[in-house]
Write a structure and sequence with these properties.
TIM Barrel, alpha/beta, about 20% strand, globular
Length: about 230
């Protein structure tokens, strides 16, 4: 299938899962993961109606954001190095999904103060405690929120998690349900805590069923890629 068919299929699946979850499809934000995708293909996806794209690497984001329409909402979804923070503040990044450590929070706060800006962020949690993934363990979240409580330039909008790569749908739903419970626990503590980023091409259906309102879909839209 071509790009248009892929997008239509993903959107239809999102609508179907949203209906099963008792929410409107419009409440689910589709982040098209465009890492390693050529700029002209991203432009085609934009022309086909997508407006939110996710990049892993700051350098690739900078190159694409310069060449593509300015109303695209760029999300940074990969681990962010502190020495790259200065390139993203006030430079077109709509949301950072991967706030996973105090040093990064401190650098985001420092650069935002310097540039008189604010940044929307999601706190990345590692519910399954996988060694290969970044993110806070569930029991670390309370201390972390205490550490960043005075960082007024960070607009904490919710959580992001990456589930284990597995075909065990029961396992996936359990991980996503735990993340949703954590989200519900902390939502009342923040002024605007409204985003739960869970689910990728392999598991976004299960994520929506357990309460995700933001999904990060790459290969199901753009096809399998060779990652560098």
């Amino acid at each position: 299938m071509g790009l248009a068919d892929n997008i239509k299929k993903v959107q239809e699946k999102i609508a179907g899962y949203a209906d099963k979850a008792g929410v409107r499809a419009e409440e689910i934000c589709l982040v098209a993961v465009s890492k390693t995708v050529d700029t002209d293909v991203v432009k085609r996806a934009y022309d086909l109606g997508l407006d939110t794209f996710g990049e892993n690497r700051v350098q690739e984001f900078l190159r694409k954001s310069e060449a593509l329409p300015k109303d695209i909402k760029w999300n940074l979804i990969g681990q962010l190095q502190t020495n790259k923070v200065k390139y993203i503040i006030d430079n077109g990044v709509d949301l950072v999904h991967s706030l996973d450590r105090l040093a990064l929070a401190q650098e985001l706060q420092k650069v935002c103060i310097k540039k008189n800006s604010v940044i929307d962020v999601l706190v990345q949690v590692n519910i399954a405690k996988e060694d290969t993934k970044s993110g806070l363990y569930e029991e670390e979240v309370e201390d972390f929120f205490g550490q960043i409580a005075e960082m007024d330039r960070l607009n904490v909008r919710g959580f992001m998690t990456i589930a284990p790569y597995t075909d065990d749908r029961t396992c996936l739903r359990k991980i996503f349900a735990q993340t949703k419970a954590l989200y519900d626990q902390w939502k009342p503590q923040f002024e605007r805590f409204d985003l739960l980023s869970m689910g990728m091409s392999n598991d976004y259906g299960e994520a929506i069923l357990e309460g995700a309102n933001m999904v990060r879909v790459g290969s199901a839209i753009f096809g399998e890629r060779i990652y560098k």
